[in-house]
Amino acid sequence: MTKLTKLFLILLFGCLFIVITACSNSDTTIDDNSSSEKDKEPFGKYDPAIDVSFVRSIDSTLDLALVDGETIEDNVWLDYYRDELGINVTYDWTASAGDQFDQKMNVSLASGDIPDFVSVNATQLNQLVKADMIMELTDLYEDYVAPFAKEVLESDGSGPFDAATIDGQLWGLPNMSSSIDGAEFVWVRTDWLEKLGLPEPKTMDDLLAISEAFTTQDPDGNGKDDTTGLAVTKDLWDGYAGLKGFFNGFHAYPNIWIKDASGEIVYGSIQPEVKEALQTLQDMFGSGQIDREFGVKPGDKVAEDPAAGRNGLHFGQQWTSLWPLQANRDNDPNAQWKAYPLVSVDDQPARPQITLGTTSWWVVRKDVEHEEAIVKMFNGFIEKNWGETAEFDKYYMPDGAEGTWKLSPPTPSPPNKNLDAFLAIREAVGNDTTDQLEGEAKVINGRVSAFEDGDDSLWGWERIYGPEEGVFGIMDEYVNQDLFMRDEFNGAPTPTMAEKNATLEQLQNEVFTKIILGDADIDEFDKFVEDWKSLGGEQITQEVNEWYQNVN
Amino acid sequence: MRSSQLPLYLMVIPGVLLVLIFSYGPMLGIVIAFQNFIPAKGLLGDQEWIGLDNFLYVLELPNAFRVLWNTLYIAILKIIFGLIVPIAVAILINEVRVMSLKRTIQTTIYLPHFLSWVILGGILIDILSPSEGIVNMMLGWVGIEPIFFLGNNSWFPITLVGSDIWKEFGFGTIVYLAAITGINPELYEAARIDGANRWKQTLHITLPGMRMVIVLMAVLSLGNILNAGFEQVFNLYSPQVYESGDIIDTFVYRIGLMEAQYGVAAAVGLFKSVVSCILVSLAYYLAYRFADYRIF
Prior knowledge:
The complex is a heterodimer.
Chain A: H1 3-21, E1 50-58, H2 62-65, H3 76-85, E2 87-96, H4 99-111, E3 117-120, H5 122-130, H6 138-144, H7 147-153, H8 159-162, E4 165-166, E5 169-170, E6 173-174, E7 185-189, H9 190-196, H10 204-216, H11 244-249, E8 257-259, E9 265-267, H12 272-286, H13 299-302, H14 304-307, E10 313-316, H15 325-331, E11 337-340, E12 353-354, E13 361-364, H16 373-386, H17 392-395, H18 417-431, H19 439-452, H20 459-465, H21 471-480, E14 485-486, H22 495-517, H23 524-551
Parallel strand pairs in A: 1-2, 12-14
Antiparallel strand pairs in A: 3-13, 4-5, 6-13, 7-10, 7-11, 8-9
Chain B: H1 6-24, E1 35-36, E2 48-49, H2 53-60, H3 64-95, H4 99-110, H5 117-127, H6 134-141, H7 156-181, H8 185-193, H9 198-222, H10 230-236, H11 242-245, H12 248-257, H13 262-291
Antiparallel strand pairs in B: 1-2
């Protein structure tokens, strides 16, 4: 069944559903004067307890979170909300994560039958506002948020709130997730560097030299010409073997909106720096440093190369040592990789581009009686996991369980929590106080120490969190030097964006790929810029600037 | 209605209900093709009616005609070879005298039908690779330069057709084999007495005997004129071959579903259904007119 027919079924089912439920769905108007009598206590307990409804997705990882006969409807988190906050969490329905959940969710939205609190993406949020189905939360948030929760929620800039702000009013609470974890690094196979007597990459020239040497000087020493320089996937922008980090080295920022010298917001993909980076990639492809067939290979195919010892250089996010590099280590215990900061073509440092990590927001159905309950649950979740009274071993990751935090409906987490864990580990190792580590840092440090004690299957963890060479040491530098190039546009797609973005994106990836392959001349880029503008890009730029004026 | 037929009519009710609920009920949703559809407002909600704007929007997209052309090109090739190959194979298999061999072949060629394109996509990237794929290795033995089947715009559509036929011809073969089994053996006997060799028998008995089934399959497959195969293309294409491989379904997937423009997606779906319906009706009429054949 094609996606299209599926969509038809979903929507049309939704239609039947409405017909069936229409009679019972008479217009309910609720007077909203009751809030004046409410306590405005961030952790105030309801007595008697109130019922609030949610929906949730289920996946197999939840089995690891549930211990001692717990269920989705009865577990430590729901106990906490009931006993401490007087909030009974009920689920209208549950469905398997992925397609099934999305379909049920679409039916829910189409039929107007949404639970009290529901998490949605920016596009859905926009539609719910237009359909007048959800409540405005500006004052509610300010009135009820706990100081620590506020600090966490506002620690990733204004982006997470901008995306849920329409006409100056807040409509959703960000289910915070890390933005900086999306930053890229240069990952290099250092045992090959040593073997070929090459310096560590400090500049783009170093990197290009490494790429060439890895291609031509037989770094694996098998006498065959079977290695490539730079690993690239057909999707161009993946978290493993994507090209964002490479472009950033040329001070080019594809796919994101950046501020130019005059303060205008412009699209990164059409700036002249991009051309220079593409030219270099074309040269690299021409001299055989990039896999001849990269244009048809998705990430998991490309990943076979480093695993089999045929590639030793890629741009990627902090996790690539867990996948796919761990497979390389498993096959070849002598393989060693290390992450380096992005390299630059000139004396200006390369700035890693990042987009908003938060991708979902909690919204409140219009006629809900205790709308502030969701803020209290936010307060509770953040406090019990990372606050003063945190009980990590009970709520986040108890012994024998994994991902217990997922049992809570809202799961906003501090955006820098992985970096914080690394810093805690590094400090503890320096002071020899690792036995005092708590929470996630303790668990991770356990893995790093196990690697140091000889468990090579945890090598990938040491590469990320190891106090000496862990990639988060570089992330810390990125943060300290404030290097990140953030996407300036965080809203729901603008009208023209919704209409044209797919076409423009296709145009871009097609032209970029052809230029890299040498099928198109580098001057095709100039034509692409013109086409991009005339096919709607100009209008989108205008809309993005209007949005930017509105939120700032 | 004779009373003896009553149980038969009763037995038909569940089937009719299913068709009504799952095929006719959902047709109400066609309305969103003419709306600026916002899901949260619901199907019967206060949607903005925009007439044919969704259709015009698609036609005005820069790649609309490229996509339409690719779809027709790939789909027509698939229809033609999807008919010829199974018929030829069915006739050949029918000539196999050793029963166990016949069965083995039949099962083996039917197997790929059960694999999903997600899995086949990965396998095809490997075996069609110009540098280390087995197909190009074999071509190399006979002195043919490696061909980049999945990355070359002239080869990509052919690769799509070829791999689709390879996956599905086993299924079609079974249908035609069944038709051959239904031919009266006495006809062959009579032909042999008249001195017809194997080839003449195939030409004058087997093929005419299969005529009805062939016409039926041809009429039905015409409905697929705008279906070039979403799952297959989606798993095999890449920006490198958008030019020759981007089809209506993948196009709509990107502009309609990824960007939440459901009205547009519905408009294209409706367009495809209408074209298919017209073609099937036309083919049916022609089959009736010239081959004196009625399906129903």
